[in-house]
Amino acid sequence: MNIDNYKQILTKYWGFTSFRPLQEDIIRSVAEGKDTLGLMPTGGGKSITFQVPALAHEGICLVITPLIALMKDQVARLNSLEIKSLAIHSGMSSEEIDNTLENAIFGDYKFLYVSPERIATRIFQGKVTRLNLSLVAIDEAHCISQWGYDFRPSYLKIAELRDHISDKVPFLALTASATPQVIEDIMQKLAFREKNVLKTSFDRKNISYLVRKVEDKGSYLINTLQKAKGSGIVYVRSRKRCKEVAELLVANGISADFYHAGLTDELRDKKQDFWTRSQTRVIVATNAFGLGIDKSDVRFVIHWDIPDSIENYFQESGRAGRDDQAASAVLLYSPADKGRLIDTIRKKFPPVEKIKDIYEATCNFLQVPLGSGKDNVFDFNMADFVSKYRLPVIETYNSLQFLQREGYMEFTEEINNPSRVHFIVSRDDLYKFQVANESFDGFIKLLLRSYTGMFSEFVPINEEALSKKSAATRDTVYQYLVKLSSFNIIRYIPGKRTALVIFTEERLVRKALMISADNYLHVKEKYENRLNSMIEYADSDNRCRSVMLMDYFGEESDRCGRCDVCRERNELDLSKYEFDLILDEVIAILKEKNPDAEELVKLIDYPEDKVIKVIRWLLDHKKIIPGSDHKLSWVK
Q: Which of 41, 243, 494, 575 has its CA at a distance of 20 to 30 angstroms from the CA of residue 597?
């Protein structure tokens, strides 16, 4: 293997002359046929690690990802680079899926993106043996672990692919964040032939992690952004607050816009593009904002609301400073936030009987008979569902999430599928049709001028754009498409925006619906642990923020010197060496005896003024506490 060949591919398609840290190591490992787990930070260039080796070898790379928006984005980008790529996800008809798989088998394509719940379907497993696979890449690999923060049962089926493909095809699992326990779980669940983990440090040396304990977040945000330079992201938890905060910033002269999943694809793309090109300075967003962000000069990421896990916080804050220049990650935290976060436990885990109620209501709403429904995909309008059965939205959403975790169904949040067209006649037969039906000739020519590839696959189209080009109404365009479909000239699938429910098992009677109490409590306990770690991070004022984050991910790290805790320590006018030297002495003494402050100062052989500064800091941060007799004790 010559790494120069890979660098030539990198330069040809992406314009880079060298790989980022770890990219080359992962590519070498995969090229040697090794199963590989790559841990790379957000923005570290994960896709390059499978796209480059796939282009260097014969065959097609199978990419498994649960993120449909990211899947569509990557396929569009690859095709724009003239790299033939396809995607299969739950919003597609069985005819589209079959057509896509046939193209993947015979059409000299290099990438096939698949959502995980499609892996176990009969249609996929029936054809995967005929694919000339070069590599299987599994994105968001932490989803396979029940210890992780985003477990998806469909990921557990991925290892079964090994029964259908050559044992020479390596698996490449990728994730941006995983604890040591999750790392081991990923390799075990994917049946790695041998353990092989490649990772960079999670430590982002250029990011200053700050926690600001404020009651009036709006005023703090306005004052901060009026002083700060550069562009950034403000993360909030609700769509309503998203818009409110953006309007507050604009009202105070700050260039800002809002972004959430409830907006149309066109509007979201427009807002993201404006922000990426710095025409908008601040984007206020829910966690829907983040996929495919290509902006390296983000100077700050501010969390208005506290996330429910360190993993989520670390991933979102990691969108700052990808250019390796100084950046800030700020968490706004008020006393009320802790109570609200703890209250999410109750909302996140509805009673088991309520989850069963939601299951039965969902089956009835979608008219799924007992014993049927497996692998079927249904449009699912959440608003209509909760309205019909008078259900609370949050409890319903979390019940569906739990049913997904238990493996009964997959629930995708709202996705937008554009209209698609596929010509099902040959070019010769189409020409004969045009000659015999002159009234359709102009419209067919417009279609063929506007889009390519429609004879081999379903191609996304835009009725609005066709309307403008033809100076006809949108309804006229729609009628042409419907009529051509009725004449069996094309297959036309009108676009729709909807959430989906996919039944991974047939509908069961209520008493057969097994939601293990142990599993329920296990999941709840893990969630509470992640929540408590996040609260501890926000509450703490005596441990370096970076050290806390690195410790969570199983890494050792020195005090960063930049976070709010370190900055306060830096004001003591002591070097890290001096502070730690005195601190070690204090700990050693207090393990043996309990002197008062005056005695403690005398017991340490170091300049008195510096010892006093350290002891005062430790007292202020409650690392040492005085008893009623003023004797000091070390707080573990």
A: 575
